[in-house]
Amino acid sequence: MSNRRVLVIDDEAGLRHTLLLILRDEGYTVQVAEDGEAGLRMALAEPPDLVLCDVRMPRMGGLEFLERYQRAGGPALVIMMSAYGTLDAAVEAMRGGAYDYISKPFNADEVILTLRKAEEREQLQREVARLRREVGEVAGFEHVVGVSGAMKEVMELAGRVAPFPSTVLLTGESGSGKEAIARAVHRASPRRDRAFVAVNCGAIPENLLESELFGHERGAFTGADRMREGLFEEADGGTLFLDEIGELPLSLQVKLLRVLQERTIRRVGGTGEKAVDVRVLTATARDLVDEVREGRFREDLFYRINVVQIHIPPLRTRPEDVPPLAEHFLRRHAPRLGIDSPPLPRDLVPVLAAYSWPGNVRELENVMERALVLSGGAMTVDHLPPHVRTGRHPFQLADDAGDLSVKRRLPALEKSLISRALERCGGNRTRAADLLELSVRALSYKIRDYGLE
């Protein structure tokens, strides 16, 4: 016997009464409604476990009920009831998200069997979700590698926010894996089958960024010889990931805030508004609280994007994640390089774990790809870069008190300063050049000469 709630929606009073008797005999709690409009009010006011809904009714038919119920986030499984001649509509309803349909006329056994099947499916889905929680797995996070307690907490929080459209702010040092978590949140969300669009707000010149985000109309500026959709329109129905959100100019911060509030965009040079359905994820390596305090980031935008904040800890604080990450990168890059994927040699593990990884996960990935290239797959400790083998920061000046030569020490100092400026500016060469008091062209040459690209 069941004590579950069933809502019956049908314009035929006799059928409503018949189903009421059948379902009550089987232990269901039953509510009835005479059309989709009344049924929708009841379903949202007192959520049922299952809905039996006729396809063709006055005022609001079954297809419209289904669409509006699902849009409102109704969780119940909906089973359509279809008379002769409306079978195509019932099939259309299943494409729109209905669980099943029953053809009229039907007998009591058919109704009960269909409801039992629906309940079994729901119970199975709950059991799968429970098992995933018990083993620490979250659907969509299969490609995020991490065994440390800190990363398990990150994935658990990310998995909890993934199903909702709320804005998420990912924080952490450069290279710590913020985009990987953002992609996992998208894969675990109801938007997983739509686009995931990523853009680095510090990598696009300020005068082009507005057009990149919101698009432009033909003739909006010199060279705009055709209309172009922006990234918000490209991500419509999906997820837009705004990396290095702290680099966004103040003038665009105002416009982004308006888009997040109104859910509409206006192309550069346009006059009309266009509605967009986009889930926005943001990331930054900066301390946005300091940025707000210094007047470089709008306080209202900070609160708008900081609905849920997820901090990705630096790799140096979770050395237990280094070996599985290293193995993951070997498996990822070996096929691309035409090399049989090798196991991670045991003697590399303590060396890798002892290094501080100032470039975080991105640096580890580059080191493992380098080792694959140099070794052809049969790698040893000697295939690791010298600074990893010695545990020394690559941009740290040599601690040699006897060497006071400016000529010999100056290149190392310059390389260190450029690296720190690029890290502080999230890779934005224009801002880094301003900090270093260099031209962008001179900085580009030095980045190339020092191998910092």
Describe this structure in words.
This protein is α/β, with parallel strands linked by helices. It has helices at residues 13-25, 36-45, 62-71, 87-95, 108-134, 149-161, 178-187, 206-214, 231-234, 250-262, 288-293, 299-305, 322-337, 348-354, 360-375, 386-390, 406-424, 429-436, 440-449, and strands spanning 5-9, 29-33, 50-54, 77-82, 100-103, 168-171, 196-200, 239-243, 264-265, 274-275, 279-284, 308-311. The strands form three sheets. The protein has a five-stranded parallel β-sheet with strand order 2-1-3-4-5, with helices on both faces. It has a five-stranded parallel β-sheet with strand order 7-8-11-6-12. The chain is elongated. The termini are far apart. 32% of the residues are buried. It comes from Longimicrobium terrae. Residues 5-119 form the Response regulatory domain.
In CATH, what is the homologous superfamily of the largest domain?
P-loop containing nucleotide triphosphate hydrolases
- Percent helix, as a range, is 40-55%
Largest sheet: 5 strands, parallel
Overall mean pLDDT stands at 87
Q: What is the CATH architecture descriptor of the largest domain? A: 3-Layer(aba) Sandwich
CATH class of the largest domain: Alpha Beta
Q: First CA to last CA: what distance?
A: 68 Å
Rg over CA atoms, rounded to whole Å, is 29 Å
Distinct helical segment count: 19
Class based on secondary structure composition and strand pairing: alpha/beta
Low-confidence stretches: 133-137
The strand count comes to: 12
Shape: elongated
Strand adjacency order, main sheet? 2-1-3-4-5
Strand content: 5-15%
- Whole-number total of structural domains: 4
The CATH topology of the largest domain comes to Rossmann fold
GO molecular function, one term: ATP binding
Keywords: ATP-binding, DNA-binding, Nucleotide-binding, Phosphoprotein, Transcription, Transcription regulation
Pfam families: AAA_lid_14 (PF25601), HTH_8 (PF02954), Response_reg (PF00072), Sigma54_activat (PF00158)
Domain Response regulatory: 5-119
